[in-house]
């Protein structure tokens, strides 16, 4: 029999997912199909009384879209995932993150860089930072920063380099 708290968590997640608004415009959006698939998987796990670990929720990576394709607002989805992870901890779904790792993940996810006519490729930097956040959420130390491609338009190299040199990514 499925535990009532886990069953209610599945219902809550389904309701909150339904409230997310799909949009074609905005700075950064997660690909809608990726978010929908993750939520369906999480609800299925909850329905089987096999609640996912909070670290699994925090480690999920979604592709981002900036063109006219439909997507969900990054901040709204991240807030939903944070709340889901917190509720999983409250229902005994596993240990929460080490506070230092949670702080580091927040810092990485909040990183913003100036744009430059010549800079590091946007996608490469974003993918690396997502990998760093995922590794920290799983309790692992992230790998070293790759050598980013310099492109005509990208993130300011000095900003990215200063951010990466100022961080010690430890879990």
Automatic annotation (TrEMBL):
Domain of life: Bacteria
Cross-referenced InterPro entries: DivIVA_domain
Identification of the protein by name: DivIVA domain-containing protein
